[in-house]
Amino acid sequence: METPRNRLKLQKILRPVLAWVIALMFFFPIFWMVLTSFKTDADAVKPEFLFMFTPTLDNYLNRTDKYDYWRFASNSVITSVFATIFTLFVGVPAAYAMAFDPSRHTKDILVWMLSTKMLPAAAVLYPMTFLTKNFLGIFDTHFLVVLVLSLINLPIIIWMLFTYFKEIPKEIIEAAKMDGTTAWSEIRHIVLPLAWGGLASTALLCFIFCWNEAYWTVRLTTIDAATLSKLIEGNRAPEGLFFGRLSAVSTAAVGPIVVLGWFCQKQLVRGLTFGAVK
Question: Which class for 202: exposed (0-12), middle (13-18), buried (19 or more C-beta within 10 A)?
Answer without folding.
Answer: buried
